[in-house]
Amino acid sequence: MTGAAPVARMAEMRLRTPEGVSFSLRLASPLLRMVALLIDWGVVTVAWGLVAIVMGLLELLAGDFARGATVVLYFLLSQGYRVFTEWAWRGQTLGKRLMKLRVVDARGLRLTLSQVLLRNILRFVDALPGAYAVGGVAALLSARGQRLGDLVAGTLVVWEQTEPSPDLGLLGDNKYNSLRGHAPVVARLRQAVSAKEARVAWQALRRREQLEDRARLALFGELAAHFRAVTKFPPETVDGLSDEQFVRNVVDVLLVK
To answer: What does the UniProt keyword field contain (predicted)?
Structure first.
């Protein structure tokens, strides 16, 4: 009789969105997740220490009510902190942010509020009977290191590598940029577009050769539409430009001073 084969853990996985865009995600190690969990536990503990002082005073005036309110407040604080931060910071708590971890949809789609709620509600089950035993066993049996809450919610925890510095050489040798002759347009773009949005566009240019033709057209069409929506461009600056060339010109004026 032979034993069950061990589960082969994945360090990286490749996803393909419904639009045909493929990309890789590096799965977070158990150690990084544990450190992030401890940081979040410390945040909640410190915050609760402050609340407990107030509740201790209130208990002197209204004992039973204060004790009941204490239980409710602790639940709201401990769970509300994780749900609020993961939703507001798109998959990150303070601990995950410091450790460069992020909760993402396992299919590569946008993380939804229901997924955030579900994975955090099931944290109670993952923590049973203590020290995250259920969640730990589930993660060991999952090739993608998913605890029970992640399996049910369809989420993964990934490690975000530090972004490389933009290689401005990929913008091409063409020195002419129709936007550069319109300083007000460039100023409005730099004011309206965040550094993160500029980096997303740069990443799209960096990976354009890896995309299928249809996905490439769709991606640059969406990026061009986004930039056109944030500011008005004189017709002479965009006439005759493909969406990809338009995005290239926008990235050029955003990243090259």
So the answer is: Membrane, Transmembrane, Transmembrane helix
227 pLDDT exceeds 70? yes
**CA gap 131, 121 in Å, rounded:** 16
The DSSP output letter for 171 is: G
Q: Hey, what are 12's tokens?
A: 């990286």
Tens digit of each residue's pLDDT (9 = 90 or more) over 59-80: 777 777 778 888 888 888 988 9
Per-residue pLDDT tens over the stretch 89-111: 989 999 999 999 999 888 877 78
Q: Is the dihedral of CA 249, 251, 256, 257 positive or negative?
A: positive
Which tokens sit at 171?
Answer: 């913008």
Residue 218 Ramachandran class (φ > 0 left, ψ -120 to 50 alpha, else beta): alpha
* Nearest Cα residue to 191 out of 224, 227, 215, 218: 227
Integer Cα distance of 67 and 60 in angstroms: 10
Number of H helices, E strands in the chain: 12, 4
How many Cα neighbours within 13 Å face the side chain of 194?
A: 3
